[in-house]
Amino acid sequence: MATPLLILRNIHLTFGGPTLLDGAELSVSEGERLCLVGRNGSGKSTLLKIAAGLVQSDKGERAVQQGTSIRYLPQEPDVAGFESTLAYVEAGLGPEGDVHRGLYYLGQFGFTGAEDPKTLSGGELRRVALARTLAPAPDILLLDEPTNHLDLPAIEWLEGELKSLRSALVLISHDRRFLTNLTRSTAWLDRGLIRKIDRGFGEFEAWRDEVLEQEEIARHKFDRKIAREEDWVRYGVSGRRKRNVRRLAILHEMRDDRRNYRAATGHVTMVAAEADRAAKLLIEAEQISKSYGDRTIVKEVSLRVARGDRIGIVGPNGSGKTTLLNMLTGVLAPDSGTAKLGANIEMVTLDQKRESLDPQATLAEVLTQGGGDMVTVGTTRKHVVGYMKDFLFGPEQAPTPVARLSGGERGRLMLARAMARSSNLLVLDEPTNDLDLETLDLLQEMLADYAGTVLLVSHDRDFLDRVVTSVIAYEGDGRWLAYAGGYSDMVAQRGHGVKARERASAKDAPKKAKDETPKAAATPRKKLGFKEKHALATLPAKLDTLRADVTRLQAKLADPALFARDPEGFKKTATDLQVAEAAIVAGEEEWLTLEMLREELEG
Questions:
Q1: What's the CA gap between 21 and 7, in Å, rounded?
Q2: Lowest-pLDDT range, 90-94, 397-401, 590-594?
Q3: Which of 74, 89, 109, 465 is most enclosed, with most CB atoms within 10 A?
Q4: Pairing relation of β-strands 470-476 and 453-457?
Q5: Helix or strand or coil: residue 457?
Q6: What is the secondary structure of 356-413 as a DSSP string?
Q7: Tell me: the pLDDT tens digits for 467-498?
Q8: What tens digit of pLDDT does each residue of 372-423 get?
Q9: Are the C-beta atoms of residues 196 and 187 closer than 8 Å to each other?
Q10: Is the dihedral of CA 238, 244, 249, 251 positive or negative?
């Protein structure tokens, strides 16, 4: 069994209201690949901060094995006080850190190291924070929504990079494909407690539904038992007084348990208000083009959008997805060509930045548009509190200002407002940002039942596969091509996913960036780092141990009667042998790489 590096025991935390964490426990072992899942507001990010040592729990214990290095990726990085992106990354390396790794990761995310952090956008800050977190190669990586604001090329690159690292991973993410491809165990934070299974996210949702179903059956049996006891109290024949008193006490205890029971959070009830049917042909674009300066964003694109189509638009950041979307919907005029909209179109748009929400307005005011207590959903009227409950907001949140809502809550509020308006064309620009997995499920189901047309910009591969019937993909130089099916179908047809947009050549790069690159970028290495020296010294012994394990396992499998006597033991031994052999190959490659590096530095 792998050695636990980090243990959280009996963690309790309350922020002046309902209990957030109520005895949560979590352990992280060497090389573990763990996803932390749960509803928005369940305390996932808070628990990760406790694991990182940034938040102190009211009660409980945090134990870290001596010498274990931990790095935490926050959702909102703080870059105050740093003059350059390289300075920010270097500050997270530690005394034995390698500045070259920092520069490598900055380069992978499109930075030189000379950028001023104060001028970066939210998405750019996210990438710089990822470089700072990955560069030290820590024993444990705690990553809170690492794919937020990343485009598809960056997400797929990050996925491959994390697979190659030896660090243990604890991931919070709403990206199903990302979690499925990376994780081997799942921790479910539900009503303040952790339930953990040694299976990756791909098997989690079926297991979760089974657990909740069994819980509901048990609760139903418990309610029936209370009803029987109440019948006995009312109508039963009196017996011995002591027995009666005892049964009454038991009944009171059961009632207390029922009152104190924390039921699973309700489901989002999401139904789009549909308008009258639009024309069969909603959008007809003929040879539309758009340029900014010398750069062509859209070049001679022709497209027809029919009623009921569900079209996804994919491409790297900066390729012009939103520009193309705005031209198709008539928000932006093309430089050349024509884009015509059909008759009777009622369009509802969900923007990716939540900018249309007034931070000072209350939740109820946003939904009622500032008037009264009723929400108009299509052609029907509904009380605002009831409509809020459909989207998992409590009645007490009605007077809460938008500024105090979390990112996930703002996302749900935008959806609630958009779904109340009548439409036959939904335009969704990154709708999955900050939504929890259950809300994503319901959004997908709503879109599946929606009779109108959907135009969707998204970097979520799984969401695209579940929702769209065709994909428009960026091909470079302003060219966009349509592919039938979802994102996976597009990959199968073109042979690859979305590639990063080519960066400016060296001769076109601003001279200032080159001149201001910190001198540390050009500093040659003089010796191995502490961890590299330690690995070089200890790897031979580890490899000898692994080779002995392989010999022992091979001898065990050589027993011809093992499979008939113990098929499960045979299967486990075969698996252990494969793991040990793979570990030997990886260890030998690492030792050879380090030895060559040592000879180069000392030569």
A1: 15
A2: 590-594
A3: 89
A4: unpaired
A5: strand
A6: TS-TTSBHHHHHHTTSSSEEEETTEEEEHHHHHHHTT--GGGTT-BGGGS-HHHHHHH
A7: 888 999 999 889 999 998 889 988 988 888 88
A8: 788 887 678 888 888 888 887 888 888 888 888 876 778 788 888 888 888 8
A9: yes
A10: negative
- Phi and psi for 58 in degrees, rounded to 5? -65, -35
Report in angstroms the alpha-carbon separations of 507 from 108, 114, 135, 293, 513: 19, 17, 28, 19, 12
Strands 140-144 and 168-172: parallel
How many Å apart are CA 326 and CA 460, to the nearest integer? 20
Per-residue pLDDT, averaged over 305-312, amounts to 90
- Classify strands 33-37 and 193-197 as parallel, antiparallel or unpaired: unpaired
How would you classify the pairing of strands 193-197 and 310-314? Answer: unpaired
Distance, in Å, from the CA atom of 224 to the CA atom of 232, rounded to the nearest integer, reads 13
Q: What pLDDT is recorded for position 515? A: 39
Contact 271, 419 (CB under 8 A): yes
Q: Say which range, 58-62, 110-114, 269-273, 426-430, has the weakest mean pLDDT.
A: 269-273
H or E stretch at 298: strand 295-306
Please, which residues bridge with residue 470 across strands? Answer: 311, 484
**238: exposed, middle or buried (Cβ count in 10 Å: 0-12, 13-18, 19+):** exposed
The burial class, CB within 10 Å (0-12 / 13-18 / 19+), for 274 is middle
Least confident stretch, 71-85, 287-301, 406-420: 406-420
CA 40, distance to chain mean position in Å, is: 11
Residue with the two structure tokens 């570990």:
583
Asked if residues 42 and 187 have their Cβ atoms less than 8 Å apart, the reply is no
Note the pLDDT of residue 265: 52
542-558 as b/e, with b when 16 or more CB fall inside 10 Å?
ebeebeebbeebeeeee
Contact status, residue 313 vs residue 321, Cβ threshold 8 Å: yes
Phi and psi torsions of 145, nearest 5° = 50, 60
Q: What is the pLDDT of residue 554?
A: 80
Q: Which amino acid is at 310?
A: R
Structural domains in the chain?
A: 4-206 (3.40.50.300), 271-346+422-521 (3.40.50.300), 357-420 (no CATH), 530-602 (1.10.287.380)
Q: φ, ψ for residue 272 (rounded to 5)?
A: -80, 135
Cα 1 to Cα 4, 32, 183, 576, distances in angstroms: 9, 11, 18, 12
The whole-number pLDDT of residue 251 equals 54
Tell me how far apart the alpha carbons of residues 418 and 356 are, in angstroms, rounded to a whole number.
Answer: 11
At which residue do the structure tokens 């709708």 appear? 431
Determine the Cα–Cα distance for residues 61 and 51; give it in Å rounded to an integer: 10
Q: Identify the pLDDT of residue 520.
A: 39
Task: Return the DSSP state at 332.
Answer: S
Q: What CA–CA distances, in Å, run from 207 to 108, 181, 252, 304, 500?
A: 37, 18, 33, 42, 36
Task: Provide the b/e sequence for 571-593 (b: ≥16 CB within 10 Å).
Answer: eebeebbeebbebbeebeebbee
Cα separation, 468 vs 461, in Å, equals 11
How far apart CA 76 and CA 442 sit, in angstroms, is 27
In the block, which residue shows the tokens 């104060």?
A: 118
DSSP state of 347: E
Mean per-residue pLDDT, 337-351 = 86
For residue 23 the two structure tokens come to 């005895």
